[in-house]
Design a protein that fits this description.
Layout: H1 12-27, H2 33-48, E1 52-59, E2 62-69, E3 76-78, H3 82-90, E4 94-96, E5 114-121, E6 127-135, H4 143-158
Antiparallel strand pairs: 1-2, 1-6, 2-3, 4-5, 5-6
Helix pairs in contact: 1-2, 1-4
The chain binds methionine sulfoxide.
Methionine sulfoxide is lined by residues 52, 73-74, 77, 82-84, 105-106, 108, 112, 115, 132, 134.
């Protein structure tokens, strides 16, 4: 098992390319989904040095906080509310370059400036949760993040 994650000093794409195999190695051989999710979230948080990384799970048509790394967060988010609820409602990745310009953004922390939310799907293509990542920098996410984080979301959906 990887004892630490090494991706610093690379550009974002190279960071993901380095991190992704380490994430696969981290979960290999472990069947407990919560343990795997918790470790993947920690690997993303500390490997990529994001401000907040976590998952919300769909429970009775709302999002409920799951494993995360970062400051304490809102526990429940209604479908359609905020960036997470919007990604849940439309079933697509949502990139927000400036959270203050997103109508209805839920500010769990005033430090969060930009955000990406990637839905998790079951085999019937229903949204079962979202992967939410926040940054303290404006415009910190682009299509490179979308590409790699959708791969991570696919992995999280498979646990
Ligand atoms: N900003 C999110 C809420 C979740 S916290 O950032 C962890 C949103 O508007 O969906």
């Amino acid at each position: 098992m990887a004892e630490s994650i090494h991706v610093q000093g690379l550009d974002r794409k190279a960071q993901y390319e380095s991190l992704f195999p380490q994430i696969l190695a981290l979960v290999e051989g472990e069947t407990d989904s919560l343990a795997n999710m918790a470790n993947v979230i920690a690997a993303l948080k500390f490997g990529m040095e994001f401000f907040w990384v976590g998952v919300y799970f769909v429970k009775e048509n709302e999002l409920v906080l799951g494993p995360f790394q970062g400051p304490v967060a809102c526990t429940r988010i209604a479908k359609g509310k905020g960036v997470c609820g919007y990604a849940y409602a439309i079933g697509q990745t949502v990139l927000v370059k400036d959270v203050d310009l997103f109508p209805g953004h839920i500010a769990c922390s005033s430090e969060s400036k930009s955000e990406i939310v990637v839905p998790l799907f079951n085999k019937n293509k229903e949204v079962i949760g979202v992967l939410d990542i926040d940054s303290v920098k404006l415009s910190d996410f682009d299509d490179t993040d979308k590409y790699y984080l959708e791969k991570v979301a696919l992995l999280l959906s498979s646990f």
